[in-house]
Specification:
about 150 residues; alpha+beta; 2 domains; about 35% helix
Length: about 150
């Protein structure tokens, strides 16, 4: 085989490998691994003592070390703590998934379906419509802990 032919074949193979690696990297950048409600819920119940202790003491070090937790975000204004597990999407089409502790629980509204900024029954949980096409979902786990989804 000619030297030029071998170089062309090698360059083509390298280009294909690079394309596959770049595709995998792009997919990873826009999707973290834990977005399944079943997986998140199962991990909560396996580690629930860690979550309850963290909320009681205000020390989140042990929760932050759990491999499925991406971030812990206390929100004093909303009196809740988000334990983010994953997400997917890009920019205005992003969804987040995880566990939330709501200090005062969830207050269900008696508004009509379609009302905005109030929790309404939906399936096994509760949904709130926010600004624009933003949708928030909470499903009770135990105590004031809920599975959550945020869709922007």
């Amino acid at each position: 085989m000619k030297k030029e032919t071998i170089e062309v074949v090698l360059m083509t193979v390298l280009a294909l490998i690079l394309a596959v690696c770049m595709s995998a990297l792009i997919l990873y950048a826009f999707s973290t691994d834990l977005t399944s409600q079943g997986s998140i819920t199962r991990r909560f119940f396996i580690n629930k003592k860690v979550f309850f202790t963290a909320v009681e003491t205000g020390n989140f070090d042990a929760v932050e070390k759990l491999p499925f937790i991406r971030s812990v975000e206390p929100d004093d204004r909303e009196q809740e703590i988000l334990f983010r597990c994953g997400g997917k999407g890009l920019g205005p089409s992003t969804s987040y998934y995880g566990i939330v502790y709501m200090e005062n629980g969830l207050t269900v509204s008696d508004e009509e379906p379609g009302a905005r900024f109030c929790w309404l029954p939906q399936g096994n949980g509760y949904m709130m419509l926010g600004d624009g096409d933003n949708v928030f979902y909470r499903e009770p786990l135990e105590g004031n802990f809920f599975y959550f989804e945020e869709h922007y």
